[in-house]
Amino acid sequence: MSLKIAARLARRELRGGLKGFRIFLACLTLGVAAIAAVGSVRAGIEAGLSREGAALLGGDAEMEFTYRFASADERAWMAARAVAVSEVSDFRSMATRGDTRMLTQVKSVDDAYPLVGAVELQPDMELSAALAGRDGLPGAVMDPLLITQMEIAVGDRFRLGTQDFVLSAALEREPDSAADGFALGPRTMVRTADLEASGLLAPGTLYSSKYRLLLPPGTELNPLKQQAMQAFEDSGLRWRDARNGAPGIKAFVDRIGAFLILVGLSGLAVGGVGVSAAVRAYLAGKTEVIATLRSLGADQRTIFQIYFLQIGALSLLGITLGLLLGAGVPVVIGPLLAAQLPVPSEFTVYPAPLIEAAIYGMLTALIFTLWPLARTGEVRAATLFRDAMAGARALPPIRYVVITLALTGMLIGAAIGFSGTWRLTLWTTGGILLSLAALALSARAIRKLAHASAPLARGRAALRWALAAIGGARDEATPVVLSLGLGLTVLAAVGQIDGNLRNAIAQDLPDKAPSFFFVDIQKDQIDGFLARLDQDKAVSRVEHAPMLRGVITRINDRPARDVAGDHWVLRGDRGITYAADRPENTKLTAGEWWPRDYSGAPLISFAADEAEEMGLRLGDAMTLNILGRDITGTIASFREVDFSTAGMGFILAMNETALAAAPHSFIATVYADEAAEPAILRDLTGAYPNITAIRVRDAIDRVSAMLDGIAAATSWGAAATLVTGFLVLIGAAAAGAPARSYEAAVLKTLGATRWKILRSFALRSALLGAAAALVALIAGISGGWAVMHFVMETGFEVIWPSALGIVLGGVAATVLAGIGFAWHALNLRPVETLRARE
């Protein structure tokens, strides 16, 4: 028979409607919709960032320098190419008023700020008027949160460093806030000129200067960037422009979006189980039709084509519905999302994420429908008449196995290409495949265990019937364990990872972390600073070290990125210290520490793990740009650096004579009893107004708040996977409803009560739900451990409330689905059911 005839027969069968394919369509639609919606939201945010790039950045381009202002040559270069230039500095400090001291992120600006956009203040006024001040004091504006924390009002005085300011207004909107990245304290804005007497911008203090450029229309940004990097090579210059005005936010959105799409793929895999089960159930219901066609001369190829075309058409329908839903929801709720997001967004229909979701949907549908379709073509007509699908081989012909593996490879390749994170993609894919394999093996083991245990339940009729049904020829365990198990696995893994991250931050870290970080301690202040702490019995330990910041520009006289790639150590500036003696608790892994009186060419001790990742070796030459000056040293040793304690950990240390003459300050970590912290903060910031104290518990709170948003996003993604699993579970229960009706009729005829039959059905569902939940729990805990151990490189412990919730949820879901479909079976008269079966 020809493809044309197969298409005609497929079309005629589809006239019967979508009976038997509702779960099929729901699973496919939900999976595609989740991926399309996440992609559309990400595209909307990226479009907003691109459209408002100049406003987010504060100009068409930005040149940033670390802990120094631009030199005369650099200023002249900018002035010659820009229509306008605005200078901004950014640093942390303590805002004080009486005994109140709060950490704040200070932005100092000039009269040209902002070049793009507008600052919104309350009460409404111009920024220039607000910063002009009154009564001989310079003005300042503050974030409303900081105003509340300090219990300060407009018109009140406060101090930054040694300079008094008057609060002129609340800072309601800062146009370039998205480009500033993560801050440990709320914003305070002042004029740079008013900080001259504050002691906060002294040589060696920790700040960055940013120069926003407003360029002539039509200026090509990439050539201009290349000119700047060539003109000021190895100066520590960092360049950004309006093409990516908020790179930190964009990178964060990309990573979260990629992760959520991979979670969506997990949901699509769960849906694939439902698709496969729906196809098997549909084909089993077409036994007589297939047998008749085979008897009339239809060959295997024709049978395959008829049902491949049917299922292909329904797959296209499901994918289309998913795309419409995934594209429509972000547009409909776009105004609400835009109001909640801290960055501009533009929600409309974007083709790229829809194409991505469609590709995922098509490949998933092919992978999960090809197997049952291929097996159907191998069944003979006589076998079909005799015992439905029981005669089908366990495995289809080898060509279909190869095609299925090829399609799976294409799906993985597409996920790597679209997400851009091959490691995360392979981890996720491996986890899904291992989970599916473990769940399939578990389902088989559950059937065998139930079959062997049924005779042991004599005297307990309901339990024995339940075990016999689970271990019987009709496979009820596999679809339930696969569908519900994979959904619960994803949710369990997310719950374990989230719980362990929160424990690491909120519980473990404070036990070993310092109470405070102090920065910007000047050379003439460090002795008095340490003396105050030495007298306090509540202080258990103090660590201090000289602190500079520098950029690694070259390795072995080659550009650093050419040698070590895009390693995180090379992204921006890094903390650098110096020491004559080897610090206590410093463990060298290779090389030797320099002698105490060493005064030769600069030597470097580098963090061992990072050195291995970057491919560094002892004897390599490394050039650092520190305060605009190049210093080249030789790597003399590698050492262990532990960042997990939140104490001081320098990637790079040098001998004392290499850096001691450079302008710098000190940092210190103070370990003290919590009750003594207010007095320590009051005494030290009162005696040394220029130093900045960062309270570790406050920093933990801000990081925890950020984790709340990430956890919410991942939980929603996992919930979508679980909803798909519930749909598949409902589909499996619906498919088994006729068999339960027959069982109930037979048992009623033999004298069983409705209550005992219902209890048997409930026990069957509970046993399957518990089995699926336990397997999912083991897989989820294993996945959470792997992520925490290999990716986060931290400890792991089982979060039992989340774990027990998974088990109870799995049992409840299967019991409710089972009883829901069993209730109808119990209400049928046995005679009607048995006559229909004849």
From TrEMBL:
<dbReference type="InterPro" id="IPR038766">
    <property type="entry name" value="Membrane_comp_ABC_pdt"/>
</dbReference>
<feature type="transmembrane region" description="Helical">
    <location>
        <begin position="357"/>
        <end position="377"/>
    </location>
</feature>
<feature type="transmembrane region" description="Helical">
    <location>
        <begin position="398"/>
        <end position="418"/>
    </location>
</feature>
<feature type="transmembrane region" description="Helical">
    <location>
        <begin position="256"/>
        <end position="283"/>
    </location>
</feature>
<keyword id="KW-0449">Lipoprotein</keyword>
<feature type="domain" description="ABC3 transporter permease C-terminal">
    <location>
        <begin position="719"/>
        <end position="828"/>
    </location>
</feature>
<keyword id="KW-1003">Cell membrane</keyword>
<keyword id="KW-0472">Membrane</keyword>
<keyword id="KW-0812">Transmembrane</keyword>
<dbReference type="Pfam" id="PF02687">
    <property type="entry name" value="FtsX"/>
</dbReference>
<protein>
    <submittedName>
        <fullName>Lipoprotein releasing system, transmembrane protein, LolC/E family</fullName>
    </submittedName>
</protein>
<dbReference type="GO" id="GO:0005886">
    <property type="term" value="C:plasma membrane"/>
</dbReference>
<feature type="transmembrane region" description="Helical">
    <location>
        <begin position="424"/>
        <end position="443"/>
    </location>
</feature>
<feature type="transmembrane region" description="Helical">
    <location>
        <begin position="766"/>
        <end position="787"/>
    </location>
</feature>
<keyword id="KW-1133">Transmembrane helix</keyword>
<feature type="transmembrane region" description="Helical">
    <location>
        <begin position="799"/>
        <end position="826"/>
    </location>
</feature>
<feature type="transmembrane region" description="Helical">
    <location>
        <begin position="304"/>
        <end position="337"/>
    </location>
</feature>
<dbReference type="InterPro" id="IPR003838">
    <property type="entry name" value="ABC3_permease_C"/>
</dbReference>
<feature type="domain" description="ABC3 transporter permease C-terminal">
    <location>
        <begin position="262"/>
        <end position="375"/>
    </location>
</feature>
